[in-house]
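ok so i was messing around last nite and threw this chain in just to see what happens. nothing serious, just curious
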Amino acid sequence: MGTEAISKVIMLAAKTGLFFAKADGNYNVAEKQFIESFIDKLAAIGPVDEVKDSLEGLLQRPLTLDEIEADTDSLLNEFNGLERMLVRATLTQFVQRVIAADGQKHEKEAELFEAWQKAIKD
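result:
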């Protein structure tokens, strides 16, 4: 997996994490810190300023499940076999951690997560 592909995965993970963090109507400080920490840790791989700038822009507009599903599907279609499974697993685990970051279970997040999971299965 090349640097460009890794950058796309990071960008989608951050965007998808933001979508789920905002799904309950409250972008909690713990969720925000988790996403920012994730991005900062990836600075070793490459520049993350673009991801941070993109997140700032995404905070200003609503994200939809359809958009997240389409973006996920588009990215997954760039991979085959094991890489595809790894990217899907990475995104899934990241989203699960974002959802759990505030220590609360929200029905809306669970519903959206289930719908997203069904949409990204082969």
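not much to say yet. The helical segments are 3-22, 29-41, 49-59, 65-76, 81-100, 107-120.
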